[in-house]
Amino acid sequence: MYSIKDLERFSGIKAHTIRIWEKRYNLLQPDRTDTNIRYYNDDQLRRLLNICTLISSGVKISKINQLSELEIYTKIETLMSSDSNDEQLNVFINKIIESGLTFNNELFEKTFESATQRLGLYKCYTDVISPSLVKFGLLWGKSEIIPSQEHFISNFIKKKLFSAIDSLDIPKANTRKFLLFLPENEEHEIGLLFAYYLIKKAGHNVVYLGQNVPTATLESSIIQIEPDVLLLFVVRTWHKDELTPLIDLIVGNSQNAKTILCGKASLTESLKENKLLFIANSIDDLEKIMQVV
């Protein structure tokens, strides 16, 4: 069950516009709670995502209103093999979102394979998977989907990321060493794995500790590993009075290694004054920082 705000977040269409489409074109038919609040099912969300894809390819809403479900599906399939990258990206992103929200293994595999063949592995992750995860709230922000959907999406993406990481060449022994981890009570691993992929692809060595690393073990791990760069992600909601001391502790125990903190801007804003810390609020930020650390 989805609220109109959920539809707005996943589709990018304002709630006000969705209401207008419902009234003028009867494009969606929401159910209502006892208090008259709209809610939507999987089929209605899927329909809206397909409508958004067609609109982004230049089809007017008045024209879409005249199409049957089969005709909409046929047009979407045509766009999947389009020569226009922009049109294809919208299809791929919406299909990844649909497959995740509706637990559709086959659709996810088909979309991922098509996107990889069309765009290549790297662009598939940066231009399709990453924007999809941002909408899910699993990369740079707080998750707003139900736990079962979150596990389904996360496990699929993590499987693909580990496969992509394993397919890369083994870095040379004398390259820079990155230590990657999630701090204590952080479990959203996808962003960290994506960073692992980017760093290894750039030819660096990575020591990957994964999620929920106890703070008490960090200092000894850093001393033993001797990294050139520390990289961590924060995704869950942190209070300033708990995040700042943690980062100060990590930076203080870094043994002169550079420290990169990745996360949503609203979480990292209070730490920008720390001159010993590099902050990445996006993939572009991270790639730029990797060139200078």
Calculate the terminal CA-CA distance, rounded to whole Å. 45 Å
Mean pLDDT: 88
- Tell me how many strands there are: 7
Find the CATH topology of the largest domain.
Multidrug-efflux Transporter Regulator, Chain: A, Domain 2
* Radius of gyration using CA atoms only: 21 Å
Topology of this protein?
Blueprint: H1 4-11, H2 15-25, E1 31-32, E2 38-39, H3 42-56, H4 61-64, H5 69-80, H6 85-101, H7 105-119, H8 121-136, H9 147-167, E3 177-183, H10 190-201, E4 205-213, H11 215-225, E5 229-234, H12 240-252, E6 258-263, H13 265-268, E7 277-280, H14 283-290
Parallel strand pairs: 3-4, 3-5, 5-6, 6-7
Antiparallel strand pairs: 1-2
Helix pairs in contact: 3-5, 3-6, 6-7, 6-8, 7-8, 9-10
In short:
It contains 14 helices and seven strands. The chain has 293 residues and is an alpha/beta fold.
Give structural notes.
By secondary structure, the protein is of the alpha/beta class. 57% of the residues lie in helices and 12% in strands. It has helices spanning 4-11, 15-25, 42-56, 61-64, 69-80, 85-101, 105-119, 121-136, 147-167, 190-201, 215-225, 240-252, 265-268, 283-290, and strands spanning 31-32, 38-39, 177-183, 205-213, 229-234, 258-263, 277-280. The strands form 2 sheets. A 5-stranded parallel sheet has the order 4-3-5-6-7, with helices on both faces. The termini are far apart.
